[in-house]
Amino acid sequence: MEKIDRLLFSFGAVTKQEWLAKVEKDLKGRPLSDLNWHLGQEMLIDPFSHVDDQNNVPEPILRTAAGNNWEIGEIIPVYDSVQANRWALDGLQGGVEAIRFELFRELSSSDWEQLFQDIDLALISVHLVEMYDPKNPIQLANQLRTYGVGQGVDPALINGSIEFDPESLSLDQTAEIAVGIHKLLPAFKSLHVDGSRHYFGPKGVGQ
Predict the structure, then answer these.
(1) Can you give the pTM of this predicted structure?
(2) Which domains does the chain possess?
(3) In this predicted model, what pLDDT tens digit does every residue of 175-205 receive, in sequence order?
(4) What value, to the nearest 5°, has the Cα angle with vertex 103 and ends 100 and 109?
(5) Helix, strand or coil for residue 32?
(6) Please, what sign has the CA dihedral across residues 20, 21, 22, 26?
(7) Residue 74 pairs with which residues in a beta bridge?
(8) Whose CA is closest to 135, among 94, 177, 170?
(9) pLDDT per position as a tens digit, 63-99
(10) Bridge partners of residue 102, in order along the sequence
(11) In the 8-state DSSP scheme, what is residue 152?
C-alpha cells in the first residue's frame, strides 16, 4: 500500500497548457471543443479538467485514510431474478463489492434462490430497495435472513441495507422498522441519507 501512496507523488507537475498542447497535437487539427458533451439541455461538460482550474487543491484520498471504507457498487434492477443474477455475477467478477438490488416485485422463495445463486452473502454487501407497493421492509429482511440461514450463513455476517422512506412514516413507525431490521440482520442499515429525491437538475445543484 505504501508503494501505491508514493506513486501519487512520484511524477513531476505538468501544467494545463502543456497538457493542452499534447491534446491538440493528438487531435490533428480538430478543435478541442469537438470533445465537449452535453448533460441534459443545460450543462456543458468539458472533457479536460486540470488541477490548475481549482483555487483550492484538495488533498488526495489515500487508501490508508481513516474512514475511507467505500465499496465498489452496482445497481441492478430485478424484474427477472435469473437475469439479475447474471448481471450480479458479471459485476462481482469485475470487482463489485456491493450490489443494490432494486426489486420491482415481491420475491418468492424460488426467486431468492435464483437471485443469489453462486453468490456468497458473507462476502458482499447486499442493498435492497422495494420499488413496488405496498412495501414491507421487515418482511424483506426476514426473507433475506431465512434464505441466508438456509445457505448456512450466520445472519450477523450479512452486511448491507434495506431502504425505506422515513419521510412518509411517523417517528414511531420509523423506529419500529429500523429496530425490526436490526434484530433480524444485526449488520444491516436501514436509515439512509439520500439526496437524489431533492435533485431537480443542474439549476438546483448550488441550493
Answers:
(1) 0.65
(2) 15-63 (no CATH), 73-191 (3.20.20.120)
(3) 999 999 999 999 998 877 666 666 555 555 4
(4) 110
(5) helix
(6) positive
(7) 99
(8) 177
(9) 565 666 788 999 999 999 999 999 999 999 999 999 9
(10) 77, 129
(11) T
